[in-house]
Amino acid sequence: MNARFGETDFTLVEGDITHQDTDAIVNAANTRLMGGSGVDGAIHRAGGPVIMQECKAYIREHGSLPVGEAMMTTGGQLHARYVIHTVGPFWHGGEHGEPEKLASCYRNSLRLALDHGLKTVAFPSISTGVYRYPMDRAARIALGTIRDFCEEHSGLEEVRMVLFGEAALKVYEEALTAEKDRKG
Ligand code: ADP
Predict the structure, then answer these.
(1) Taking the complete model, does pTM exceed 0.85, yes or no?
(2) Environment class of 178 (CB within 10 Å of its CB; exposed 0-12, middle 13-18, buried 19+)
(3) Domain range 12-176, its CATH number among 2.60.120.10, 3.40.220.10, 3.90.550.10, 2.40.50.140
(4) Would you state the pLDDT for residue 82?
(5) 83: CA distance to ligand 1 center in Å?
């Protein structure tokens, strides 16, 4: 399913984030950039040790990466040249700033891509795995934030969301239909 947000093509696809051929893929990381399960583990396995070396160097220099922030490493052996690491919020019921923090993940990742002159970026569904953010709510925030950013900034050719499994794709497709109805 596709949409046009400003000058940017937006696409929803089912698949594996590590297989994407975009300039950058986004990692659903943790504040210590330690790797782990889900997207994070898959990216480090597929990309090889250079990504972890760069993450460790970043932590030594800057300390932990706060929730909602983003940093970038190279992509190692991945098709993507870069990995943008961002830390999603853990779901504590929605009254602890989760929506704002999740929106910041998408905004700061897109800004980082734009600042480095990248044209194409692929996101996983941040926070909806181990961090337990309800997927329908996360989808609304992801799509609304990406749309607002692309309508305010030119330079990105494609933003892709890569959903793991048919059920996740369907949730995002419904959210995209609602988003189109909301803003036309
Ligand atoms: P978080 O800790 O931010 O919740 P996870 O990696 O646990 O991140 O999960 C985020 C989402 O990514 C989940 O919906 C999960 O199903 C999905 N996911 C897991 N592995 C992959 C993958 N290889 N490619 C794309 N999405 C994935």
Answers:
(1) yes
(2) middle
(3) 3.40.220.10
(4) 98
(5) 15
